[in-house]
Design goal:
Chain lengths: 375, 530
């Protein structure tokens, strides 16, 4: 029991650090509570779904899925097409979701197959793969769209006649989902429908854990060899987990972009994986363990810091860039700390097992000498 | 038990060779329903190979299959994978645990055979989205645990369980399979405490009453006599004896297990008495955490100039001793060499104190496979002792002395009769025996004061074996180097060593002069087995 408590304290150290940072920065930022809560609610609606997509690969023992960027790219391609076809509002979003799913599935299968060849190095492999697929994405968006894939509207096309502009406006969809069923509580807008969708997703994940597939994933995540000996198809299970994650990331990206109201065609996806993973880790998750609670705690803490840090930075140094610098710096720092903690924990567990041997020997010695004294 | 019934299992003329190396010769074995068969024999006697054949292990088919026939319930069977064997009603509990650490006992018992509940989503996406029926799972796990007759906590996480309970969880998993007719237990009591072992034996009797046959492999002979109906003893791939347990005794089984007819190797040779020599290496309270070869509380003196053998059964910890001292696995205790304390867990300091180690893991630790023989022989000496280097500018720049390297390599190629095209050949192109000779040459080139040799003859043919052993003996006698040799083959230890220490259950169970009888060694080997 004692060991467990200690372990939890280690796990909790990152969230506690962030609570302290937020506690210092909130008064400095000079934001009114109403504004702050409004911002936090908005960002919860915007980001939670994306972060939920990370949970399933962690369950399957594949670590933090940096490859969720693949799903984000699939969603962007779908949204660009829907935008060109001028299907607006929620129907447009649903159509974009329908288009993004097959693309995400294909990318997920591709990603899963490669990760199966790089067992134990999933994180770095998926991270680098995100760069590779980004290249393909750019090829499609920059050259094929308008040349091979018909794009009618010049508002999203580059002036040269093919390729997509740096920014695609999603004005027709902007916050359409958030505003449906939205209620206003004391000046704080609550996007009820978005929250309902997120809640449904949470229930699906809880339910999924209790299915046969979920159980298999947990088994594969803990010991692939044992799972294989028991007859579980390890490779297939791992691929499915990545496919689910990629599809959910795509859907999450659509929710994210409808809230933003525009697509930064060439950069929107590039940091999304990093920020989602950082948020999850801030919520107290680790490489091999994450819960829905970690997701929400992470979103609140990480984004509170995002909101208040630039203003606090501006207040202290007079330069708001320091806050922008700070948030990127912190994201990378959090991920680095989490990875180091994961490795040291593994090593510690091993060392503890060795120490047990020594303790057993020592207690045997004392027992022996006690016996000798008696005799 | 119905003695008239046809045998449940019949193995007829089973033969197996690994690339021409005969490991099983003409094994005939019968087992009735509900019968308990005790199977014993030294390591390498062929027990595990025989069980692998029965259980359809994939490496048997990959190495060319086996000869002879297996009949189960009168039907001829030949399993190409363990899954087929399980399907036919054979269960096996391996020595290494096959459990998911973060699952509780119930989840492990029913791993991948969980009762499921149908729902509408699984109709669309397939059966894997059925939810688990926790109630039914608990019920079935309880039945299996009851069947076993040993109470374990079904809701305890595996990683918080004592080792014995893990073993029982595995047994319960096999028992939860309804088709189970034959259960193979591979050294199940090795990890159990005294009380747990007794519980297991009761449980085996219980299973036998329910009509499940059990093949029970163990080194604890008393257990075999307590619980088994029949005792089968294997030696060198031959079934030497198969008798009802009432007609045999521990001494007789021991004799059958070790007492091999010695042909030709019984030549007289001098065994030196080094009792008067000073103690060069003093090991006290050594523990080593080497997976599968745990060492517990070993205290051992090595005399200057002797060849000390360390023997014992596999998995008892003999390999852990040199690996722990050389710093390859986490270790504790005290090691004093020539009056100087050697810190553990630091390979470099061991090498600096002129220790050398020929590892049992030739290809992993022993050799630079993609480099030439010259490099393999000279590399450690170059790294550690600055040998074979030409120094310029007062030692600021060191260049390899290619000529000296070639000379020393060629010297050892001659001496050890290493078969190769030239000293520039890559190490991986050599045969196993010649690779082993290169490992020795490498250690000799270090000119150590203390040489650890671990399993020097594993996996090499008879001719090379004799040469390697002869080289070791000559190196000891001519250069006066103290040698500690670890081997699972008692015979070869007796040929080379002056004294032999037997390790059992991670501890030294006794030290005897090399000319003691095999029975004495056999008794020591089985004494502390746990």
């Amino acid at each position: 029991m004692k060991i467990k408590e200690k372990f939890n304290l280690r796990q909790a150290s990152v969230p506690i650090m962030f609570i302290l940072i937020c506690a210092v920065c909130i008064p400095l930022s000079g934001l009114s509570p109403k504004m702050l809560i409004n911002e936090i609610i908005t960002r919860m609606g915007r980001n939670s779904f994306l972060i939920l997509s990370l949970l399933i690969p962690i369950m399957a023992g594949m670590g933090l899925n940096f490859g969720m960027t693949l799903g984000a790219m699939a969603a962007e391609i779908a949204l660009i097409l829907v935008c060109d076809w001028q299907i607006v509002s929620v129907p447009g979003m649903i159509l974009a979701a329908i288009i993004s799913v097959p693309i995400s599935v294909l990318l997920g299968i591709f990603c899963g197959k490669i990760l199966n060849r790089a067992k134990g190095r999933e994180m770095i492999t998926s991270y680098i793969m995100a760069f590779f697929v980004n290249g393909i994405y750019q090829l499609i968006v920059l050259y094929l769209m308008g040349k091979v894939i018909p794009i009618k509207h010049s508002s999203i096309k580059l002036p040269r006649g093919y390729g997509i502009r740096n920014t695609v406006s999603l004005l027709s969809m902007r916050q359409k989902l958030d505003n449906m069923l939205a209620i206003n509580v004391a000046g704080v807008k609550i996007p009820v429908l978005t929250f309902i969708i997120i809640a449904v997703m949470c229930f699906i994940i809880i339910w999924f854990r209790r299915t046969k597939l979920g159980q298999d994933m947990r088994a594969v995540g803990q010991d692939m060899d044992v799972a294989r000996d028991a007859g579980i198809n390890v490779e297939r299970t791992r691929i499915i987990s990545i496919v689910i994650s990629t599809v959910l990331a795509g859907l999450g990206m659509i929710i994210y972009l409808q809230n933003m109201g525009n697509i930064a065609t060439y950069t929107a996806h590039s940091q999304i994986g990093m920020f989602c993973i950082a948020a999850l880790l801030v919520g107290g998750a680790s490489v091999d363990k994450a819960s829905i609670g970690n997701v929400f705690l992470g979103v609140i803490l990480f984004h509170t810091m995002f909101i208040v840090a630039p203003r606090a930075g501006a207040y202290i140094t007079g330069d708001s860039m320091i806050g922008e610098y700070f948030r990127v710096f912190v994201s990378y720092a959090v991920i680095t700390v989490a990875l180091i903690m994961y490795e040291t924990n593994k090593r510690k567990a091993k060392s503890a097992a060795s120490m047990k041997l020594k303790d057993a020997q020592d207690s045997e010695e004392t027992q022996k000498s006690a016996d000798a004294q008696e005799g | 038990m119905d003695t008239n019934s046809a045998p449940l299992l019949k193995m007829q003329g089973i033969k197996k060779d690994f690339f021409g190396n005969q490991v099983l010769t003409d094994i005939n074995l019968e087992l009735k329903a509900g019968e308990v068969l005790g199977l014993c024999g030294e390591n390498g006697a062929g027990k595990s190979t025989l069980m692998k054949i029965l259980f359809g292990a994939t490496d048997i088919a990959e190495t060319g299959g086996y000869g002879g026939d297996i009949f189960l319930d009168g039907q001829k069977v030949s399993f190409s994978s363990p899954f087929e064997a399980i399907e036919a009603g054979i269960g096996m509990v391996h020595q290494e645990f096959s459990l998911i650490p973060g699952f509780d006992a119930t989840e492990n018992i029913l791993l991948n055979r969980e009762p499921e509940k149908y729902n509408f989503i699984s109709e669309i996406f397939g059966e894997r989205l059925n939810t688990l029926d926790r109630g039914a799972m608990d019920e079935r796990a309880r039945e299996a645990v009851d069947k076993m007759g040993v109470a374990i906590d079904r809701h305890m996480m595996i990683n918080t369980m004592p080792v014995g309970h893990k073993q029982f969880t595995e047994i319960a998993r096999e028992l939860s399979k309804e088709q189970l007719k034959l259960l193979i237990l591979d050294e199940p009591t090795a990890v159990l405490t005294e009380r747990e072992a007794v519980a297991l034996l009761d449980s085996i009797k219980n299973m036998s009453e329910r009509g499940i046959s059990v093949i029970f492999i163990t080194h604890r002979l008393q257990e075999i006599l307590t619980v088994c109906d029949t005792v089968a003893v294997m030696r060198d791939g031959v079934l030497v004896e198969c008798v009802p347990s009432s007609e045999t005794s521990v001494t007789q089984i021991t004799k059958r297990m070790v007492g091999r007819e010695m042909a030709g190797s019984s030549e007289k040779r001098e065994i030196r008495n080094n009792d008067d020599a000073k103690t060069i290496l003093k090991i006290e309270k050594l523990w080593v955490d080497m997976p599968g070869e745990t060492v517990r509380n070993v205290t051992l003196d090595v005399k200057e100039g002797e060849i000390l053998g360390i023997g014992g059964l596999a998995g008892q910890g003999k390999l852990g001793i040199p690996n722990g001292i050389m710093g390859l696995y986490e270790a504790g205790g005290s090691v004093v060499f020539d009056g100087k304390e050697i810190p553990l867990n630091s390979p470099r300091i061991c090498l600096d104190s002129s220790f050398a180690f020929v590892s049992e893991d030739r290809r992993g630790v022993g050799l630079l496979l993609d480099e030439t023989l010259e490099w393999n022989v000279a590399f450690p000496a170059m790294q550690i002792q600055d040998k074979f280097l030409k120094k310029y500018l007062g030692g600021l720049i060191k260049w390899r002395d290619e000529k000296a390297i070639r000379e020393v390599t060629e010297k050892y190629i001659d001496e050890l009769q290493i078969k190769c095209t030239s000293s520039k050949q890559n190490a991986k192109e050599l045969s196993g025996g010649n690779q082993q000779k290169v490992c020795l040459a490498k250690a000799f080139a270090l000119e150590p004061r203390l040489l650890f040799v671990s399993e020097p003859t594993r996996g090499i043919d008879v001719g090379a074996k004799a040469l390697v052993l002869e080289a070791l003996r000559r190196f000891n006698r001519e250069s006066g180097v103290t040698v500690v040799m670890v081997s699972s083959e008692l015979e070869e230890l007796r040929q080379v060593c002056d004294r032999i220490a037997i390790v059992s259950g991670g501890r030294i169970s006794g030290i005897l002069p090399a000319d003691s009888t095999t029975e004495d060694f056999g008794t020591l080997m089985l004494k502390g087995v746990r």
